[in-house]
Amino acid sequence: MKIINFDHFAATKMRQEVKDAMEPYFMSEYGNPQSIHTLGDEPREALSKARLQAAELLNASSNEVIFTGSGSESNNLAIKGTAFAKMDKGKHIVVSKIEHFSVLNSVKSLAKLGFEFTEVPVDKYGSVDPQEVKNALRKDTILVSIGQASNEIGTIQDIKEISKVVHENSAAYMHTDANTSCGFTETDVKELGVDMLSAAPHRFYGPKGVGLFYLKKGIRIMPLIDGGIQEFGRRAGTENVPAIAGAGAACELAKKELKDRILHLLPIQKAIKDGVLNSLDEVYLNGHPEKRLPNNLNFVVKYIEGESMLMWLNNNGIMVASGSACTSKILKSSHVLNAIGVDAALAQGSLLISLGEDNTLEDAEYFVKELPAVVEKLRKMSPLYEEVMKANKK
Amino acid sequence: MPVYSEKVMDHFQNPRNVGEIENADGVGELGNPTCGDIMKIYIKVKDDKIEDVKFKTFGCGAAIATSSMVTELVKGKTLEEAEKISNEAVAEALDGLPPVKMHCSNLAADALHLAIEDYKARKEGKGPIGRVETPEHDEDEHDLLEQA
């Protein structure tokens, strides 16, 4: 059976070019980039090349790019690194209600150490109103962290405007979590006006185990991992050279192919959206209708539960995700759906699709053809659906 | 390694005894849509035996599989025998469930016991009991992670 990956937010297949870029540093050029002797030469060259490739994707300078271990680590570094460096200036951080857990749990950890945070609300599309960010700013606000796009509902924020508001009205740093958006929308740090940005190469055909962190020149953070002088002293530990080389290659491809990638994804996204909304009753699209990533769709299918939908689709070779409580591992339905006003019971029917370069229009057609039977099967055994049907008859 | 056992997958994909019983003698409906699981079990009782049993479930793979399994386990059994079947026994009959599912989605035996309770209540003119809401999981994600 053909496997259709509609869950690219979980994993993308590395590109051959990425693998090729990594290959030399496992065995033949295994040296430590910090070595002064010859074994360090090639790995050092690899780091410097990758840093340049990443810098070009983000429109930054090479010395503003730090490689971390993951997108989550980059978010932790932005938030905790700022908090620890600026605690003499203030203890208040602003985030939105729909941030990734690596942001929300970072501020919650800091709250246990005496920091304070404000979660700004979002509207029904998941958009952050820059005015709300302005209202949340305090004299002691040291950081604002708002994701460029939601990893669940795909809504893209006006980071440029939010950065402007933050910088005009406070001394706080502005960070954006671009772990979901980088590689699928423009992430020009100068255009966005941010001081820090996180990106995750494994989301755009790079390797796992490496994250990108943009730190604008002059911005002061404290490292989370102390040790040697690697990564300009901001992230100690011997560098993961193969992964970093792969991340660099993925960044170069992303820069070169971004426009084509978007053009490839948009018709597939539209075919799925139209197909699902037209072929099923009581199904809703979450997130912004236009200002959204080209590779994400999030539906709520009423009266059934997401994990059982996911499992039936999996049976048909289609891999999707869900924001239902049962799929969450912590048994709570999506905080993002909750924040945009989706009723907790309805959020159980969440269906999360994330597309990638291996998807085709045929995949979309196959999915649209298979989904109604899955939904019907599950609704037939749903006591909630039974109630509604009986109420409708009366 | 798959998340679910082969038996769970079998009962999820080929659920036994799905449906409702018109004029059932007892109905047990248990769960909370906020948590993602509602199980509704219908029983037909004759001579203190479960003559027929059907279910409808809104929930995850484990919720559907445990509902299916419990109906299979109790069909033809006496009420006394059925009352002794525990959630754990249902999970065991399915070759186990992932730990996270043991509490949230493993309510099928409870729903069955509720159906029996409902049957007895009706006989005494005190039923039907109606849906019983299970409590929500209201722990903070962050605290849960810390405990783990």
How large, in whole angstroms, is the Cα Rg of chain A? 22 Å
Straight-line distance between termini of chain A: 44 Å
Q: What is the strand arrangement across the widest sheet of chain A?
A: 2-8-7-6-5-3-4
Largest sheet of chain A: 7 strands, mixed
As laid out across the biggest beta sheet of chain B, the strand order is: 3-2-1-4
Overall radius of gyration of chain B: 16 Å
The oligomeric state is heterodimer
Strand element count of chain B: 4
CATH architecture title of chain B: Alpha-Beta Complex
SSE run of chain B: HEEEHHHHHEH
Report on the architecture of this protein:
The complex is a heterodimer of chains A (394) and B (148). Chain A has 2 domains: 4-9 and 259-393, Aspartate Aminotransferase, domain 1 (Alpha-Beta Complex); 16-254, Type I PLP-dependent aspartate aminotransferase-like (Major domain) (Aspartate Aminotransferase, domain 2, 3-Layer(aba) Sandwich). With 394 residues, chain A is an alpha/beta fold. A 7-stranded mixed β-sheet of chain A has the order 2-8-7-6-5-3-4, with helices on both faces. The mean pLDDT of chain A is 96. Chain A has helices at 16-22, 41-58, 71-86, 101-111, 130-136, 159-169, 189-192, 241-279, 306-315, 335-339, 361-380, 383-393; strands at residues 4-5, 65-68, 92-96, 116-120, 141-145, 173-177, 196-199, 211-215, 283-286, 296-301, 318-319, 350-354. Chain A is globular, with a radius of gyration of 22 Å. Chain A starts with a strand and ends with a helix. In chain B, strand 2 (37-46) and strand 3 (49-58) form a beta hairpin. Chain B has one domain (6-147): Alpha-Beta Complex (Sufe protein. Chain: A), CATH 3.90.1010. In chain B, helix 1 (6-13) packs across helix 2 and helix 2 (61-74) packs across helix 4 (87-93). Chain B is 42% helix and 20% strand. Chain B is globular, with a radius of gyration of 16 Å. Chain B is α+β, with helices and mostly antiparallel strands and 148 residues long. A 4-stranded mixed β-sheet of chain B has the order 3-2-1-4. Chain B contains 7 helices and 4 strands. At the A-B interface, helix 4, helix 9 and helix 12 of A face strand 2, strand 3, helix 2 and helix 7 of B.
